[in-house]
Design goal:
With 204 residues, the protein is an alpha+beta fold. The protein has two domains: 53-118, 2-Layer Sandwich (wza like fold), CATH 3.30.1950; 123-203, Outer membrane lipoprotein wza domain like (Outer membrane lipoprotein wza fold like), CATH 3.10.560. Helix content is 32%, strand content 26%. The protein is built from four helices and ten strands. The strands form three sheets. A five-stranded mixed sheet has the order 7-6-10-8-9. A three-stranded antiparallel sheet has the order 2-1-5, with helices on one face. A two-stranded antiparallel ribbon has the order 3-4.
């Protein structure tokens, strides 16, 4: 009778340990997946545009290495022996793979890396009653509030409740209205838009 009781007890312990291992593994896996998704969102790819300055390095091949390659207005670059290559709209990694493929005619197993040395193609504009109006480079993820800071803040005549954000979406000009006081007061943080290339902010 005691043997059966001990066996049953050990069976329960083993079952509990197995369940714990499976549960913890599943939870850790879910956490890892969630973290990977968040990291993926944070590392959005940069797409090359006209006006950008690139650095193209070909490993152990100085003849095919260029420290400053400007993306022309037609979206193309000029590279030794390859003539014109389309760069606009590509990520640096995608452009590197294209150059590697083209260089195989001249080099055995070429290894190319493309860096965006000066990202001038992505810009936004701040106009109206701010201290420094003008065109600014969009070199990283910026919000509307950060744009005001970059522009030096508001003038004393600024209407902070009637700010306008102009944005091109699918070929159409769209207007977003922004109340600065609602953002800084925590009433409507959704108006603190993340900026996109060619956004224009107007402070009346």
């Amino acid at each position: 009778m005691m043997t059966k009781t001990v066996s049953a007890g050990w069976l329960w312990v083993v079952s509990f340990l197995v369940f714990s291992v499976v549960f913890c593994t599943g939870t850790a896996g879910a956490a890892d997946t969630g973290a990977a998704k968040e990291e993926s969102k944070a590392k959005e790819p940069y797409y090359i545009g006209s006006g950008d300055t690139l650095e193209i390095m070909t490993y152990e091949e100085p003849a095919f290495t260029r420290e400053e390659v400007i993306v022309r207005q037609d979206g193309k670059i000029t590279f030794p022996l390859l003539n014109d290559l389309q760069a606009d709209g590509l990520t640096p990694v995608a452009l590197a793979r294209i150059i590697e493929s083209a260089l195989k005619k001249y080099i055995e197993n070429p290894m190319v890396t493309v860096y965006v040395k000066d990202p001038k193609s992505k810009k936004f504009y701040v106009l109206g009653e701010v201290k420094t109006t003008g065109e600014y480079p969009l070199t990283k993820r910026l919000t509307v509030l950060q744009a005001f800071a970059i522009a030096g803040g508001f003038t004393e005549w600024a209407s902070k409740k009637e700010i306008i954000l102009l944005r091109n979406e699918d070929g159409k000009e769209k207007i977003y209205r922004i109340n600065y006081r609602n953002i800084v007061g925590g009433k409507d943080l959704s108006q603190n838009f993340q900026l996109q290339a060619d956004d224009t902010i107007i402070v009346p």
